[in-house]
Design brief:
It is a single chain. The chain is an alpha/beta fold. Helix content is 21%, strand content 21%. It is built from 5 helices and 11 strands, in the order E-H-E-H-E-H-E-E-H-E-H-E-E-E-E-E. The strands form 2 sheets. Strands 4-5-6-7-9-8-10 form a 7-stranded mixed sheet, with no helix packed on it. The protein has a 4-stranded mixed sheet with strand order 3-2-1-11, with no helix packed on it. Helix 2 links the parallel strand 2 (29-32) and strand 3. It is globular, with a radius of gyration of 16 Å. The relative contact order is 0.19.
């Protein structure tokens, strides 16, 4: 069982509730989809991800990626120090799946061909031999929430679709969204990429700011995603 959530670890009581709920389900690991509040400092990581309750209970099984709030601390220093200098991007295999974490922030600026992260991703996908691939990063390529779409991810998304990636997990907008499978241009396609937005980890929830016929499901309650 894989758990995933973002936009949670912070001072709000709901964040502690969600963190405890995840821990009580005893997943094999958690993909934390970015944003520790408010500025991603080491002190905030220690307070909201380093205690015996809430998200601290799942720190040992967390595979994180960085969000935009962490970069309010220059260079996202608190994030990288707290998580023992985890790379900006990395991959691992589990349960027959190849799993890839990326840094989708504009501060890192590694989303187009010729950039180190993008070129690494091309090679990582080409070298993978497992039949199922999941990719996770903070910013959604498509979202009906107030943060909206992320056009800067267009070339990353097209690459993922071209290489047959199955699932993309994101945060940033504070809701749960499941999108229809989409092709590299964002059009519905049965064999396309299914994107989830899972940003309801405890730091407030946000209603839809627009409608989109490609959206399959939405929920604006707190919670986390579990995949078996």
């Amino acid at each position: 069982t894989l758990a995933a959530v973002g936009d949670g670890a912070g001072s709000r009581p709901d964040a502690t509730v969600v963190g405890n709920f995840i821990a009580d389900q005893n997943p094999d690991f958690l993909l934390y989809l970015g944003d520790v509040y408010e500025r991603g400092t080491f002190t905030e990581f220690h307070n909201w991800y380093g205690q015996a309750q809430g998200y601290g209970r799942v720190r040992a099984i967390t595979n994180p990626i960085v969000g935009n709030h962490e970069y309010q601390d220059p260079g996202a220093a608190g994030y990288f120090y707290f998580f023992d200098n985890v790379p900006h991007y990395y991959s691992f295999d589990s349960g027959g799946w190849h799993i890839i974490g990326l840094d989708s922030t504009s501060q890192f600026n590694q989303l187009t061909p010729g950039k180190a992260q993008y070129d690494w991703l091309v090679n990582d996908l080409a070298a993978n031999t497992l039949p199922c691939v999941l990719v996770y990063f903070h910013h959604p390529r498509y979202s009906v929430g107030p943060q909206g779409d992320t056009p800067a991810l267009a070339q990353i998304w097209a690459l993922l679709a071209q290489q047959g990636v199955d699932v993309v997990l994101t945060g940033h907008d504070h809701s749960y969204q499941r999108w229809q499978p989409l092709d590299g241009g964002g059009q519905p396609q049965a064999q396309g990429v299914t994107q989830f937005v899972v940003g309801a980890g405890g730091q407030g929830v946000q209603a839809a700011a627009r409608s989109d016929s490609r959206l399959a499901s939405m929920n604006i309650e707190y919670g986390a995603l579990f995949l078996d």
